[in-house]
Amino acid sequence: MKKYISLACVVAALSSCNTNQWTVNGEVEGAAGKQIVIEASGNGWWYPIDTVEVNSNGKFSVSHEAAGYPDIYRLNMEGKMIYFPIDSIETVSVKSDVEKFDRAYVLSGSASADKMMKVDGLVNDVVLAKGEAAIATDSLLKREVSTLLLENPSDIVAYYIINKKVGKTALFDTRNKADLRVIGAVANAFAQMRPNDPRTAYLKSLYLSNRSVPTNVASNDTVYIDEAPIFDIKLSDNKGEMHSLLDLSKQGKVVVLNFTMYGVEESTAFNMALAKIYEKRKTAGLEIFQVAAGGDEFQWKQAAKNLPWITVYNSPVTDVVNLMNYNVTNLPTTFIINRKGEIVERVDDIATLDAKLNKYM
Predict the structure, then answer these.
(1) Which domains, ranges and CATH numbers included, belong to the chain?
(2) What global pTM score does this model have?
(3) How high is the pLDDT of residue 30?
């Protein structure tokens, strides 16, 4: 059950897996023995993908399978965060100290890493001098980060910049005409250069839904920009009936979203454990939306006949965007969606799923 299947094998339909990985390493003075959690972002929320212990010399190194598209990750040490970009399979290095981990650090290894360090440095300087709220109105800060952004508006750092927040204060305000133009530039660049990127649709929606909103609000007003609660998945079950995850999430149920592959050794045991949870909780409003992420479609159809929950087939050729949206790099991957239609947890161990559901049922 704890054996994971690499999604790279599924998508590429290869008999053996590629080991394309990115690496983050570094040195944190005074942090010997401390744990650093490496976290990935899934549609605006963060979840751990690995943990590394800083050695006696203050050094650490960890590698992770590449997602197949540029993304933002972060290092979390006791609630202090350092964000870093990964374009492909490069190595990013961090140098800091335990006291100023998230405020005085050096990020290197790529042009994107250099740019992100500059952006966060500019923002941190304003926060320290004027407070969090000032980032929404400081004209010099906006000019400097906009200049960095417009060097390459289709870069992952551009996406990071227009979604940057400190606390609940957004750096770019959709009600501000100048800010919205910058957001529009990023949306347009992603549409042209990254049409299949899972963020492109969000960026276009963010810009278009706000361009007709009056922009004469007071400059000290702050809008909090959040991404949509979930990405929709529209796929057919074994009888040809179309199912929408978004529609299901609006029914006031707790939904377990599971990406898996039928026919492998672990699949039967995993589904047996899932069946026990479903039988126990279905009358209380639990629904399961299970996505067969590739594998043998015929085998999926045979297995799906005996499953009491929603199970749909995700083609590794035409539907890979669904896996990218949820940053699925290993199978099985499981999420909990609460009754409000929000993803609240990623569950890596099926043995803990029932206990975690107690908080939302």
Answers:
(1) 19-101 (2.60.40.10), 110-228 (no CATH), 234-357 (3.40.30.10)
(2) 0.55
(3) 95
